[in-house]
Every structure is written in C-alpha cells, then in structure tokens.
Design a protein that fits this description.
Elements: H1 27-38, H2 43-49, H3 54-67, H4 90-96, E1 111-114, H5 131-151, H6 157-181, E2 187-191, H7 195-210, E3 217-220, E4 234-238, H8 244-256, E5 268-271, H9 272-276, E6 292-293, H10 294-298
Antiparallel strand pairs: 1-3, 2-4, 2-5, 3-4, 5-6
Amino acid sequence: MKNVHSDSSQSDAAGYLSSDSSFYGDANDCALLEEQTLRNHDPASYWSSHAHSIQVIAATSHKIAEAVSAKPLYNPYEGHISGRQLAESVEDFLQRLPPLTTRVSVEYPWIYVANPCAGSRPTDRDGAGFTPPAEALLQEFTEKREAIEIRMKGKAKGSITRKLTPLRQGLEEKLLTLARETRFTSGKWILFPCPADVNRQWAAVAPAVVSGELGTAAKVAPNDGSGDQSPRVICVYTKDFSNLEDVKRVLARLAELGLAKKFDGGIYYKVDAFTELGINAGNEWGLKPSMYSSKELLQGKK
C-alpha cells in the first residue's frame, strides 16, 4: 500500500503538533483571521535572526493560533517543516520551499499547503477502515476472473472480455461505495508540469488553496534529481469525490488559472481510495484509475 497521498498520495505529516478542529465562519471571517495572523509578522527581519527550524516555526504558529482561539484556523501540516505554517505568508512559504530546487528527502517527501478554513483534509488514517475490505474485494474479483479464464480457455479474447466487463463494473461500484461508507472520500486533480514551469504553477496553486478558491489542500513533488525530462506532480485535493459540483468548481478555478484547458489532453481526477490500493494505469484488475477528466467536465459531458 502507498503512503499518504503518494502518487499520487498525500501525507498527513505524521507528528504534526496541532489538534483537529473545524472552522464554521464564512469566507470573510476566514480572510479576517488570516489578516490578523499575519498583521504583525515581519518575515524578512524574523528569518534574518532565526534558523529555519521546525521548532521556531511551530512555536510562532501556536502563539498566533492561541490569539484567535475563538475561531481557530486549522492546519494539518502545522509543525511539519515541509508544509506551510499559519505564521507564514504564502510568499514566504514559496520562497522557503521552491519546488524546482528543494531536494526530496525524508523531511521533504512533498511540499504541502492547506486551506486553513477547510474542515478536513485527507490523511494517512483515512484508509484505515477502507483498505482491508477493499483488498478482499480485489481478491474476490481476481479469483472470479481466473475461474472464468480457465472455463473459457480457447475462446476468443473478446468473449472473455465481455464476460468480465460486468464483474469489473461491479467491482468499481463496490469499491466506491465502500469508500463512501468508510468516509475515505478525498480525491485530487493531478497536474504534471515540466520542471521549468513547476514554480510558476505551484505559485498559482498555493495562494488559491490558502484563500479557499481551490480545494482542501495541495502538494507538489520536490526535486528528485531526475533532471529536466521528467515531469513533476502537483495534486489539488477535494473533500469528496462524489460531490461533483465541488469537483467541477475546483476544476473551473484551475482553468481560470491557466492550469487546465478545455480542448487539450487535459488533467485527471483520481480518488485517494484507488491510490491507496495501487490502482494505476495498466493495473491487474483492468480498472480505470481516474474518475474524471478535465476535458470531459469542461465540455459539459458530465
């Protein structure tokens, strides 16, 4: 199984210091709290006299969070050095961790940013109730497929495929139903910028996530040393794959930012439940790894 949001998946930054909480104000309340958080913070002078240590960042963030405890902002990456902290402006965060040059490491498996006003984000723990029964469903399908292939040995491949299609469709439906029942509903739009463009695209995504214009969180792959030929990955998360209106809303904003186009090859949306199970292109069960495509949704086909 994959780690949080590897991908194609997202770590919930194990060991983060803040506790879960929810924010129930509107967008104006959120903006006001963000302004209060940053009003007296002078990043240039601060970082000139403080090390870029997670302890310093976390301590500053907690002092500010306590000041607005009546309606606290929420950040699952608080205390995790690879994520934006509540005490940081987005500009400072982007300068501290530019994805083009930040090297991947144990401390920086991904670079994360969260919407501080969202009530929840995907975490490692989300798949706890989903994975074992989901793996049992995959095993059941595998056994049925093998029995059909043995029984139909020597038959035309098309005949076997037609026999397996309803079983495969049933498997997909069962997996998605199980994901909803276990509340493992997060998913993400996945961008593949070339290295030369990754800083620009991330600089468009990060502030839009923080301001609530996109989804619940986002992450970008750091520099893994593979050079200029391999594309990077940016994941923009939504809370619920079955909330098509919200999935479309996030896509529409990505399109406005110039990150998804109506008539090109497009970008794809993948549910975290499928990422957790290792359902990628060419998977052994013949399942489609993505749920939506930008081309399909932007052209009104769903």
